[in-house]
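Data card: per-record layout.
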Amino acid sequence: MSARILSLHIYPIKSCAGIDLGESPIDRAGLAQDRRWMLIGADGKFMTQRQWPSMALIRTALDAEALRVSAPGMPDLDVALDGSGLEPGAETVDVWSDTISARRESAAAGQWFTDFLKTPCRLLKVDVQAQRTAKPDWVSRWADAHPDLADAFAGSHHFGFADGFPLLVANQASLDDLNARLRAKGEPPVPMDRFRPNIVVEGEWEAYDEDHTAMITVADVRMAFVKPCTRCSIPDIDQRTARQHDEPGRTLAGYRNLDIGVVFGQNAILDAPAGARLKVGDAVEIELDF
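The structure for this 290-residue chain is written out next.
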């Protein structure tokens, strides 16, 4: 089965705009710099586009020294990658049912986001000592179902502020199928950025074959598909305008509503050697579950 990486994406600040990449380092925590920062509201809970759609308008860019943040009507904000802007001491924050250690970026950084979103908030970065593990029940279920593959994924899979797993993989053919359904209803097609994947694959992979894929391999990097990605309202938010719509969520709910919810894409854990990199165009080997 012939397939390739169509695109690579990271989202340095959880629920803010992503960065399209030509290539990226990758390890068991996922793509480098993916979801390493997160906004916390005055209530101490993490913030997402579900409640603040305008987070989609917060753009990010990376250079060797800083994460540059921009938004309409705001001066650019540079957040040092070396941690020199972090305040002393770690604190714990919750991401869904997980608790993770994090460090607060400067008060000036927090004020930048407060000013733009017009609500009090703070910017946190994953602490270097943090050890948040991918959902063990789903990982164990996959390992039990694939004993011939499980040894490569033994051990812990620590990652940052993503919802539940180090990596999200999407199938371009599945988006093409969804867009065909939208067009048939007289609705405009949607781009893949509505689903905020890390890796998009295209090739001889039929629509929703990812549901029946045990693992994909790119060179010496292996990715086990341990859980379908359940979708919230964020795919209904236009990532360029922050406007909320009824689609594609309404159409997806009509034919992709499984026992765990409406799903699109696959959450993955990784086996990646030191120094591993992925790049757009890399060949993808697909191991189906049939």
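Known properties of this structure: The chain has a mean pLDDT of 97. The chain has one domain: 3-288.

See the next section for split statistics.
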